[in-house]
Each structure stands twice: as C-alpha cells, then as structure tokens.
Amino acid sequence: MRVRKGEPRSQSALEFLTTYSFVFLIIAVVIALLLMFSSIPKSTLPFSCNFYSGFQCLDASLSVNSSGSPVLLIEASDTEPGTVNISSFSAFLNFYNSKSGYCVPNVAQAGEVVYCVANLTGSATLGSVYSGTIKITANYCAPGPVNITANCAKGSTYTYTGNIRVQATKFVLSNSYYLPVNITNNQSYAAPAHFQQMIQFLPHNYTVAESPDLGNIRFYYGGKELYSWCESNCSSSSAGVATFWVRTPQAIPPGQNMQIYMYFLPKSVQYDGVYAGEAPQLSPTYGEYDNGANVFNNYWNFAGTALPSGFSSLASGGTYSVNNGLTLSVPATAYDWIHVFTTSQYTPAIIESYVSSQTSLGARGEYDLAYTTVEPASSGTGSGFQTDYRFDDWNNNSRIAYDDAGASGVIIQSVFTLPTAFIISGSWPATGNEILKLNYANQLSATNTSITYADANLDIFISHGTTTAMSATTQWLRTRAYPPNGVMPHAKFGTLTPE
Questions:
Q1: Is residue 271 assigned to a domain?
Q2: CA-CA distance, 153 to 85, in Å (whole number)?
Q3: Residue numbers of the domain that contains 351
Q4: Do residues 312 and 285 share a domain?
Q5: Where does 254-406 show beta strands of DSSP type E?
Q6: What is the pTM of this model?
Q7: Which residues contact 335 (CB under 8 A, 6 or more apart)?
Q8: What is the mean pLDDT of residues 200-205?
Q9: How far apart are CA 325 and CA 477, in angstroms?
Q10: Is the distance from CB of 444 to CB of 415 less than 8 angstroms?
Q11: pLDDT tens digit string along 97-118?
C-alpha cells in the first residue's frame, strides 16, 4: 500500500487495520489455542501405544507389583508375515529403564497376540502419566517349516521399537508363572492331531498366579499358543475342579507323551475370545469370550435371540425360544414334542450338550441328544425323521434308542435320573459300540446292535408322555474327537515356577 502525498496519516493507519484485521484475528486465535493446550494437565491426554513396524500395540497398563516397583504390560499383535522369535522386551519410561523383560509366547506368527512384561527401576506414583519408548528384540524368519522353534532360533537381528504413554493404576500385577503339563497316551491307538484334551486341576492350588476368573491362563507348545476353553469352575475361589479343553497341535502316538506348558500371565490379562475363552454363560456378557468354535470340531452356543445359521425345528405342540441359550418347552398335553436340529450333516465321534436347567423331565419326560436323518414331516414318519439314533433320559431311565421310520426300538436302558443341570454325551465310535455318559461318567454301553453310522443331523429334542408341562435350557452343543480306545490321555502337572 502506498501513502499518497498529502494524505492524512490517520487515514492510512485506518486502511491498514481494516485490510489486515483478519490476519491479526487468526494469529490471536492460534496463540490462544496453544496457551490453552499447554495448560491442560498431561494426565487428561489420551493413552497411546504404538510400534513403528512389526507389531501393533493393542493395549497396555502400568501398575505397582508387591515389592513396590512399576511393571509395564503390553498386549501386541505380530504383523510380520513370517515368524518372530523374541529374545527380550524392554522399556524406558520417564528416565526409568527396565531391569528385565520378556514376552509370552516368545515365538509368534502373523496375527498372533503376545503379552510382554517389563519390570522397571524406580517407583511409580498412582495417577501419574509416564511416557517413553518400548522395544522388542527378536529374530525374524520368513514363512517356512511347521517346526518354528527349530528353524527360527533366537537372536538379536531385529529390534521393533515404538512409543508409549500410560497412566499408573492401582491394579497390582503379579509376575507370570508357568508349569509343564505332560500328556501321556497309554493306549494302543494314537490320539489324533487337533484332538481336544481335557485338562483338570484344583484352582485353589494356584491362587498366587490366577486372575479371579482364570482368564490369565494360557497353554503353549513349542512357544506357540494353543486354543483353550474353560468349561466349568472357572474361578480362583472355586472349591471344585476346573475343567479346560485344549486343542492339541499334533497327534500323540501310542505309549508316548507330549509336553505343553500352562502359563499364568499377569493378572490384568483377560480371556481374548480367540485363543483363550470360556463357556458362554460364564462371561459378564453372554458369549463375550466364547471361542468354542476354535477348540471343538463343531460348536454352537445359542447366543442372541434366534437359532444359529444352519438350524431348523419341527414340533407337535412344543415350542422353542432363543435368549442366550436354547429353551425347549412342551405344554401340559400328553406326547407333545419339539425338535431343534442342524440342517447340515456331520460325522461326529462324540456329541455333547450342556443343559443348565430342566423341569419335570423325570415325570415321563425325555431329553434327547440324537443323530438323525431328516426328511419332510409329510413323509409319514410323524416327526419328520426317517431314522433317529439317540442318547436320552425317559421316565427316569437312561436309554440308547434307535427309531426307524417311527418304529421305536430301544437298544438298552437302565434307571437313573437327570439332575437339574448336566452335560450329556453320546458317542458312536464304531458299529456295535454306543456309549451314553452323564457329566463324563459312563451310564450305558451298547454292543448288541449292528447299526452303521453315516452322515447325520445333530438334534436336540424333548417330549413327555403325561399332562405335565416341562422345559429344558441348553447353553451349548458341540462335537469333539473320540479319544484313543475311549480313554482320555493322562495330564500330569509339574511345579509352578515364576517366569
């Protein structure tokens, strides 16, 4: 802008302010924002945790252990396309170095989650925010052989670094513990690969290491995490035996054993619902951590309010409802019934369901777990099933029964009464070999039939022969592999050892 000769200086100043006032306004706003953000306490800034490459940081916590030292725990997912064999984990927070650190599992493949713990020097103040760097030291191996531990030795070839900002909490972490579990197959037949191994123990033996719901328990073989699912007594305060199912990575030959490791991660670790999970009714939200589909050959938990995909129903007076569990009901009319069944066919060795509650089944009531061949109800069979091979309770009798085109043919039965809640198991390992179990205890064995098993639908069925209304609620239905000679390999525990 030029000031013309003779023009009043006040007029020039006015033109300058008018022309550039918006510039001064923007500068003032920016300065105000900078001052405002610089005055915000750091503790209100969001949590952050990230790696520059190789891993994705999913979660982190900083707390004080029993000796008063800060402990950093991070949960991270391996994003490398091959195998990573981790040698160490370290952190540097607010000028405090870590004096020790490790990751579990120490061998990870693409997409697998690892939990890394660093014990820091100094002390942490509850509520304060700490920031710094994290580092995983590992050897990277390209995708290759199945035996990842033998072909991807530990080393210091790669470092995966990142930054972290986290607030110290009141939650107290425990150190990690582990114990070896030796699984022995004493039978003359091999336990197949991807076999479901039952692992049972008394939780009160390991309270020093367990989280309240056993959600920090993991199982590993060769440094790789195995799929596991807690079925019952999933509590550190439980007086009963906790039952886990673990999907084994390979077959166990006759007379041989396989050693896996049971880890107790820091107590802040929870079930992830992928590798580690629990039965649907045990989670705070129904099915929240249920990974049964990853553990068993076939699995359904009846979450939500509709039948799972691939299920259908047939009924005569009976009804079903789904509300985080499948409830079958029949009214006070004699011989009413309700079937809920899969529309696809399966070849299971063992079919099982968990009934969390039942009413009046003893008054000529029947709960069936069956293999069936489905055909239209109009075909003349009455119930819509051409053949029905079932394991059930009827009128206080356990039964292994076979119906062919509606003609009942009970194979064998004995007297017992179903409890209010129970697990019922039916197995058909071979022609002429049929077994019924209640809560894993043998009730019946039939060897006097030549029925040949073929692909069939899985069926849950209730009915009654009196004028008493009845119902039963099933939480899950599954199939699993038949153990060698029907005998579960024996699991023997070693000594609990701090990591």
A1: yes
A2: 7
A3: 300-480
A4: no
A5: 257-264, 276-278, 298-300, 311-316, 319-322, 326-330, 337-342, 350-359, 365-374, 385-394, 397-404
A6: 0.71
A7: 316, 463, 464, 465
A8: 93
A9: 10
A10: no
A11: 888 888 877 788 888 888 888 8
